[in-house]
Design a protein that fits this description.
Elements: H1 13-32, E1 36-37, E2 43-45, H2 46-53, H3 58-63, E3 65-68, E4 74-77, H4 82-91, H5 94-97, E5 101-110, E6 122-131, H6 136-152, E7 158-164, H7 168-183, H8 191-199, H9 210-217, H10 228-243, E8 249-250, E9 262-270, E10 278-284, H11 288-291, E11 299-305, H12 306-316, E12 326-330, H13 333-348, E13 353-355, H14 362-372, E14 376-380, H15 382-386, E15 389-394, E16 400-404, H16 408-417
Parallel strand pairs: 1-5, 7-8, 12-13, 12-14
Antiparallel strand pairs: 2-4, 3-4, 5-6, 6-11, 7-9, 9-10, 10-11, 14-15, 15-16
Helix pairs in contact: 1-6, 1-12, 6-10
Bound molecules: adenosine monophosphate (AMP).
The site of adenosine monophosphate (AMP) has 17 residues, from β6, β10, β11 and α12.
């Protein structure tokens, strides 16, 4: 038997209903904050991610699904959505009508990571990106919007971690200081961090190896190196969050995996998911639009990990498929023919119906109706057809009423839809 590819998964119907609920909640919530949907493809030029995410990141170095296209160019299954949304913003000149664009997208991402609980090779994100607004109030509103979204899903116990990564100028000063400090203790760092030290020293800050974590405790903090403008931006984000009663913790080790972040970086974490504690992450990326050959426009956004969100929602309430409103316990060819017609018409009218075409006893049919959680059952066999009347059984009260065949669709519709 051919099985799933490792690191990939099927979302089965019971769980899919939770996904739908999350998507609908996100769409409505983001809509109220002024967002419109955009749907970029899952396949892009590899160069898009190399340039935006950065050559020296784990994603680009080892996690991308990349293969040759027919013209010899390299194509990649997107590992994240921001680069694609930025590309679309530039390519379709969305900024021409109005540089301010608030866009969201929901869909699968692909990363060749080591599969484990909460970490998949195809996973889903809800992304929101705002272009053309440099104000720190936008950063704060995005964070507020995500926390409000989680609240609507009844998810509590989340923590907002906040940091500022400064701008290229103040970050360069910080990087130099950090590199100098860590270089003097290089013997205590893991092999990956020794390599990172040269190329991307900020990544040492979020290394999980205990020895590296101990070293990082002593490291200087980016916030102390912010230039005047970056410090003012950060202060406003903080006061705006306080104004809206959004609790947060400053996290000096929060650097995010991607090169393109500037100033605000945030992550939303939970203790309920074990090692994979991040449910959402985002921040400002003011340089990315220009880096991808667009007009310089500030931008800020986030990505919510849907797989982890689904786990949190399912831990709170049982998932399940929707039960039928009406089950047809029809017996025999003549009854199937009538029930087929009734169920088709009633489904059209908004009644969720289920019909059993198998050759089974009434007892077996009623057992199935019960198992499916049907609210009502119509019992129809040759006898009922001959009498021009079928029985409608309320499965909760066990009450059974006769319904004339000629007015069945109307009668049932009135009883069930209203
Ligand atoms: P990132 O794009 O790495 O900042 O990730 C944003 C969010 O996506 C994270 O906070 C996770 O919730 C989720 N995420 C990232 N990678 C994976 C993965 N391999 N499997 C499941 N969820 C993921």
């Amino acid at each position: 038997m051919i099985q799933l590819v490792r690191g990939f998964k099927d979302i089965l119907p019971e769980e899919a209903s939770v996904w739908q609920e999350i998507e609908t909640t996100a769409r409505n919530h983001f809509h109220d904050f002024g967002f419109n949907e955009i749907r970029p493809p899952v396949l892009e030029e590899a160069a898009l991610f190399k340039r935006s995410i950065g050559e020296l990141t784990d994603i680009v170095e080892k996690e991308m699904y990349t293969f040759a296209g027919s013209k010899g160019n390299l194509l990649t299954l997107r590992p994240e959505a921001t680069a694609s949304v930025v590309r679309a913003y530039i390519q379709h000149r969305l900024y021409a009508a109005d540089p301010v664009q608030k866009l969201y997208t929901i869909g699968p991402m692909f990363r060749k990571e080591r599969p484990q609980k909460g970490r998949y090779r195809q996973f889903y994100q809800i992304n929101a990106e705002v272009f053309g607004i440099a104000s720190p109030y936008m950063d704060a509103q995005l964070i507020y919007m995500v926390t409000g979204f989680f609240r609507k899903l009844d998810i509590t116990g989340l923590r907002v971690h906040l940091n500022s990564l400064g701008c290229p100028e103040c970050r360069a000063r910080y990087k130099a200081e950090l590199t100098a400090m860590l270089s003097s203790r290089v013997d205590n760092l893991c092999a990956d961090c020794v390599r990172r030290l040269d190329k991307n020293p900020l990544r040492v800050l979020d290394c999980k190896v205990p020895a590296c974590r101990a070293e990082v405790e002593q490291a200087p903090s980016m916030i102390d190196y912010l230039c005047g403008d970056c410090a003012a931006h950060f202060a406003t984000v903080r006061s705006a969050l306080s104004d809206m009663d959004v609790p947060y913790a400053i996290d000096h080790r929060l650097v995010r995996g991607l090169d393109y972040y500037t100033r605000t970086a945030f992550e939303i974490q939970t203790d309920e998911l074990g090692a994979q504690s991040a449910v959402a992450g985002g921040g400002r990326y003011d340089g990315l639009v220009a880096l991808l050959d667009g007009p310089p426009q500030p931008a800020v956004g986030f990505a919510i990990g849907m797989d982890r969100l689904v786990e949190l929602v399912m831990a709170r309430k049982p998932a399940g498929v929707v039960a039928p409103d009406l089950f047809f316990a029809a017996m025999g060819e003549a009854a199937w023919r009538k029930a087929f017609e009734w169920s088709s018409r009633l489904s059209d009218a908004g009644v969720r119906t289920e019909i059993d075409f198998s050759e089974r006893s009434l007892k077996a049919l009623m057992r199935r109706a019960d198992r499916l959680g049907a609210k009502y059952v119509i019992i129809a066999g040759d006898q009922e057809l001959a009498n021009n009347s079928v029985n409608l059984r309320d499965m909760k009260t066990k009450e059974q009423i006769p319904v004339p065949i000629d007015s069945l669709v109307e009668t049932v519709k009135q009883r069930i839809v209203n």
